[in-house]
Specification:
Helix content: 10-25%
Radius of gyration: 15 Å
Largest sheet: 8 strands, mixed
Oligomer: single chain
Strand order of the largest sheet: 1-2-3-4-5-6-8-7
Structural class: alpha+beta
């Protein structure tokens, strides 16, 4: 896969050289509140700004023609959050999934309490579909937390 270029970010396949950085980022308290440590960073794309790896984004594709769509997940280092870089990364990947991979619908599923992520995804055009009760682990409490299912149709991407 060729690198994808957004307004401020570049998305490129991760390399072995990225693993230590990504592992450190995902363990930051602000990130670890929403993410567990992945088993493998190899299926992710590094989010890069001015040569610095600031996080990772991943996608999954449903290839059954009856239900074809893709989903997205992202994490960024705490000191680069709130700068529009996550929005740029999600928008860049969404456009590629729609234009190059032919998906008509994308989903993203942040924790319902992750208001910063939800605000970012809305800027890309994602709309709330509904609450998924007790959807995923709350890494702060060890209990279950609700998730918000959001989707984006091909003609809605900003």
């Amino acid at each position: 896969m060729q690198p994808l270029r957004g307004a401020s970010v570049v998305l490129r396949p991760t390399s072995d050289a990225d693993i230590e950085t990504l592992d450190r980022i995902v363990r930051e308290p602000e990130v670890a509140a929403w993410w567990s440590v992945p088993d493998d960073y190899g299926d992710m794309l590094a989010v890069v700004v001015a040569g610095e790896v600031i996080g990772a984004i991943q996608f999954d594709e449903e290839t059954d023609p009856e239900f074809r769509h893709a989903s997205i997940d992202i994490f960024l280092t705490a000191h680069r959050q709130g700068q529009g870089l996550g929005t740029d990364a999600v928008r860049t990947l969404a456009r590629w999934l729609i234009r190059e991979r032919g998906h008509h619908r994308l989903t993203i599923d942040p924790a319902a309490a992750n208001t910063a992520a939800i605000r970012s995804y809305r800027k890309v055009g994602f709309k709330p579909v509904g609450i998924m009760r007790a959807y995923g682990r709350d890494y702060r409490t060890g209990g279950w937390a609700d998730g918000l299912l959001m989707d984006l149709l091909a003609d809605e991407v900003t």
